[in-house]
Design a protein that fits this description.
The chain is of the alpha/beta class. It folds into 2 domains: 259 residues, P-loop containing nucleotide triphosphate hydrolases (Rossmann fold, 3-Layer(aba) Sandwich), CATH 3.40.50; 254 residues, Rossmann fold (3-Layer(aba) Sandwich), CATH 3.40.50. The chain has 17 helices and 21 strands. The strands form 5 sheets. It has a 7-stranded mixed beta sheet with strand order 1-2-4-7-3-8-9, with helices on both faces. Strand 12 and strand 13 form a beta hairpin. The longest helix is centred in the middle third of the chain and has 20 residues.
Length: 528
């Protein structure tokens, strides 16, 4: 081994720090075992105005010998990419097969071959990677090297823009190679790989040098020669195992170009002048009626008119606003229950008489509020429907472009698991549907998880008749929408404080659409 290689292995690869964050990147690092999820400033729309997916996630396969530096290369790619919305590093090591007691005994005696292709649950690896590539959720198994066993826990993953699948056999199986948009092989000196492996296994896996060398000569080296090294012929790029910054920068330039080609300007396609939208330049023709839009609207009683009169008043105190918002949300959720399935049921009354009735026929039910204004409906939801799990979505507009950005997804277990998601009824709680950007994104997230469109009930205080609701209904006709009132107009305006010559040449700020008469900033009025 040369002095340069010896110095490199003794010092080890640079440690990737997440605090402070790299320039231009705001990352949170989660690392259960070897899988890593890097979340940046938000995820822009991955679908069109028809609600259908546009393209798929960009998948990179990184293969190479054991301790060749695959994980380091993957993380350096992430670092160099900059503010990519969500990146997942998916390790092949998570997909080792479940071991029997006999196999466990062999594993602890260093007599089980973990480097042979048969040790990997390839069908599960392919299915998980295919789901993530198609923007669906996946629950990744967690493998313990200390116990030599796949654990009962899983890691929920969703929302990747870029997926990096790394492992010694990442390029071995044709079904895996078919999923990659870019294939990389990390080529490293065999002496350096052995030295790294000894250092890693002693420090991280508590193994002895003798056991490491025995396993290396018995299984690792033959597997590398027979199965791993030949897969380099499938790679698009060969990357050296150290001093590889130039190769990584070339890879990132290619990935950035591919992601730019897949970018989607969504907001401007739904927030454009059309019937019912009022701008400072023109007035358009009347927009569709609530019946034509298939909206379920609360009966316009004197009580409802009185509540809205109080809530629309800008002089309304916060105490009154909170009280009447909670009251209105309770009425709204109660009215929305009509969209749930019911079956006949006969009960016996206290006086011994049979009485026909109905009971709820839903296996699973939960609520998802769009933060933060959607949280104003949560108290009413919990008053009406008890003991159901709640989730949340954080969707906000990008300050420069106005595009909706998915910042956080926290969904109940019913939705995170595919086998229960399709039988789950979901109430989405939102203050209003204006341009429909947040509504589009929330529905698409649920559909990605396997929730049926007809099982989604969207509950909102207000709907803008002339906003994005018409396009929303064409995209998702089977979603039930329940609201308390339909406002007629949205007025074009400009949000001050966001001014630049690229996105706003006139220097007026970011374009927004304001519902009229509306309720103002409901979240601010409720919480502040």
């Amino acid at each position: 081994m040369s002095n340069q290689l010896l110095k490199h292995v003794l010092s080890g690869p640079p440690i990737i720090s997440t605090s402070p964050n790299p320039p231009g990147k705001d990352l949170k690092l989660f690392q259960p075992k070897k899988n890593t999820v890097l979340v940046s400033h938000g995820r822009p729309p991955w679908y069109g105005e028809n609600g259908n997916l546009i393209g798929d996630a960009f998948v990179i396969g990184v293969a190479g010998g054991s301790a060749s530096g695959k994980t380091y290369v993957a993380r350096e790619i992430v670092r160099s990419l900059g503010s990519i919305p969500t990146v997942i590093i998916l390790s092949q090591d998570s997909f080792y097969k479940y071991h029997s007691p006999e196999e466990l005994a062999l594993a602890h005696a260093n007599m089980l071959d973990f480097d042979h292709p048969d040790a990997i649950d390839v069908p599960m690896f392919v299915n998980c990677l295919a789901d993530l590539k198609a923007f669906k959720q996946s629950n990744i198994p967690v493998y313990s090297f200390a116990e030599h066993q796949r654990l009962a826990e899983t890691k929920y993953l969703y929302g990747a823009t870029v997926i990096i699948a790394e492992g010694i056999l990442a390029l071995h199986d044709p079904s895996l190679r078919a999923l990659y948009d870019l294939k990389i092989f990390v080529q490293c000196d065999s002496d350096l790989m052995l030295a790294r492996r000894i250092k890693r296994d002693i420090k991280e896996r508590g193994r002895s040098v003798e056991g490491i060398l025995d396993q290396y000569l018995r299984y690792v080296k033959p597997s590398y020669d027979n199965f791993v090294r030949p897969t380099a012929s499938h790679a698009d790029i060969i990357v050296p195992g150290y001093n590889n910054s130039v190769a990584i920068e070339l890879i990132c330039t290619h990935v950035r170009r591919q992601l730019q080609e897949r970018s989607n300007q969504f907001r401007e396609k739904i927030a454009i002048p059309r019937p019912g939208i009022k701008s400072k330049f023109e007035y358009t023709t009347p927009s569709p009626t609530p019946e034509e839009l298939d909206l379920t609207v609360l009966p316009n009683t004197s009580q409802l008119q009185g509540i809205f009169t109080i809530l629309r008043d800008k002089k309304c105190s916060r105490q009154d606003f909170v009280f009447f918002v909670d009251r209105l949300s309770t009425l709204l959720v109660e009215y929305a229950l009509q969209h749930l399935p019911y079956v006949p049921k006969t009960v016996v009354t206290p006086v011994g008489i049979e009485a026909p009735g109905k009971q709820l026929d839903a296996n699973y039910m939960c609520g998802v509020c769009i933060q933060r204004s959607g949280g104003t409906l949560e108290r009413g939801f919990r008053r009406v429907i008890r003991d159901v799990p709640m989730g949340s979505l954080l969707i906000q507009s990008d300050a420069a472009t106005g595009e909706p950005m998915c910042l956080q997804v926290k969904l109940p277990a019913y939705i995170r698991n595919r086998h229960t998601a399709e039988d789950t009824w979901v109430f989405i709680l939102d203050a209003q549907i204006g341009t429909g950007a947040a509504a589009f994104m929330s529905i698409r997230i649920l559909l990605d998880h396997g929730v049926r469109e007809e099982h989604i009930v969207y509950v909102a205080f207000l709907v803008a008749r002339g906003g994005g609701i018409s396009i929303f209904r064409r995209a998702f006709p089977r979603v039930k929408i329940v609201c308390a009132e339909v406002d007629d107009e949205m007025e074009e305006g400009w949000l001050e404080g966001v001014q630049d010559e690229v996105t706003n040449p006139g220097g007026l700020g970011r374009k927004v659409w304001i519902m009229q008469p509306g309720l103002g900033q409901i979240g601010d009025r409720y919480y502040l």
